[in-house]
Amino acid sequence: MSLPSAIIISHCNQRRTMERTKPETNPSSFLRNKSILIGATAILALLMVWSLRSNVSTSSVSAKKPKATVASYGGGWPGSGAISWCANIRQKTFYDDPNLSYSIEKPIRIWDEKRRRWLNRNPRLAAGARRRILLVTGSQSSPCKNPIGDSLLLRLFKNKVDYCRRHGYDVFYNNALLHPKMGSFWAKIPVIRAAMVAHPEAEWIWWVDSDAVFTDMDFVPPLERYKDYNLVVGGSPELVYESPSWIGLNAGVFYIRNCQWSMDFMEAWAKMGPQTPNYEKWGHILKSTIKDKLYPESDDQTAMVYLLLKEKDKWANKVFLEHEHCIQGYWKGLVGTLDNITQNYLGLEKKAHGLRRRHAEKVSESYGAQWELYLKAAGYRKDAGKRPCITHFTGCQPCSGKHNVLYTGDSCWKAMEKALNFADNQVLRNYGFVHADLLDPSHLSPVPFDFPS
C-alpha cells in the first residue's frame, strides 16, 4: 500500500471511529487527544517528505554502476529488478547498442534473445504479449492524382482505426519511404522491419494494404491456428510449390511473427528489391521462373513465391499458406453480395433479441463471439467466399487512379464506397446510427430501440 493511500485510509477509519463514539467533553482529554493528533500528523508529514524524496532523487545514494558492455544491451543493469516505468527508463536495453539499426540493409542478430530480455524488463507489457498484434499499413506521402483519392485513403485508414479500436490493437500508419529506393509495393518491407524493432512488445505484425477494407468488424485473427508458424499469407500450396503462379499468394495482407526467423526472411525477400544492384536481373529471373508473370519487373509478391519455391527447405515449414480461413477476399466477387448479407444479418437479429441488444463499443468483441454461433448456423463460415473479413480492392489503385483495364474506375470507386459504408454501419450501430443506403456516405438514419424487431 502506498503512503498516500495509507494516510487516506487512516483518516477514513478515524472519522468512522469518531462518528461511532460520543465525543469527550473533558478539557484535559481534548488537549491530550489534540497533542496526539498533532504528533501523528507531524510523523506522517515527515514520512511523506522522506517517501517523495526517495522516489524523486537517487543522487544521494552513491551506487557504482557496472560498466556497459555488449552483453548488457538488451538485459538491463545486472540485479536491477525494478518494475516501475521510471526505473525501466534508466536500464540499459538493446536500444542503447550503437550498432542497432532500423534499416532493412543492416541485419539484426539474436533478436529473439534481445526481445525476451526487453520483455523481462517490462513485465507490464510482457503480460499477454503472445497475442499482441500491431497493425501496420500506409500510403504514399504526396497528394493523390485521382481527384477522390485522398478522401478514399482517409476513409480507408478510418476503417482500420475503427477495427483496431474495437479490438484493442495498436496501429501504425506510415506514409514516408523508410528506404528511398524501396517504393510502391516494396515499401512495406522496411516499414515492417522497423515496426518490429520499435514494438518488441508485439508478437505479430499484421500488414494490411491501404486499399483493403475490414468488412467484418467482429473478425478476430485465429492466432491459435497459427501458433506453429511465423508467416501467414493467403495462398494456395499448389500454386506456389507445384505450379508456381505470381497469384499463388497475395502479399497485400499477411501476419508475420516478431522474431529472428522473420528478420532473416525479410532480409532474403528484400534482396530482390529495387535497392539492390541486381534488380533488373531479378525481374528477368522471376519472369522466366514464374511463367504467368506478365512483366520482367521484380515485384514483392512474385519474389515471395520465388523465395518459397526455391528455398522451400529453409522457409516452408514456418509458412502457412491460408486457403481455408478468411485472410482477405477479392472485391469483384464480394461487393455484390453485401446487400444480401445486410438483409440476412437483419433477419438473424430479428430472430434473436440478444443480437440486437444495445451495448457499449468496448464490449463489442464479446457480442461478436455471440454472433459467431448464429453466423455459423446460417452458413457464414470464416472464409473469404462466404464471409468477407477483409475486402481487398486489388487493381483499383484509389490514389493514382490507374485501375486495372479489366474494369472501369467508376466500378472501383462505387464498390469501395459500398464496402466502406457496410463496414461503417457495424461501427455506427454502437453510436445509434446507420447508413440506410450503402452508396450514400453522408446521410445517416437513427437506429430505434430494439432494431430490427
From TrEMBL:
One of its GO terms (molecular function) is galactosyltransferase activity. InterPro entries: Glyco_trans_34 (IPR008630), Nucleotide-diphossugar_trans (IPR029044). Keywords: Glycoprotein, Glycosyltransferase, Golgi apparatus, Membrane, Signal-anchor, Transferase, Transmembrane, Transmembrane helix. It is a single-pass type II membrane protein. Its main location: Golgi. It is found in: Golgi apparatus membrane. One of its GO terms (cellular component) is trans-Golgi network. It holds the Pfam family Glyco_transf_34. Gene3D superfamilies: Spore Coat Polysaccharide Biosynthesis Protein SpsA, Chain A. Belongs to the glycosyltransferase 34 family. This is Glycosyltransferase.
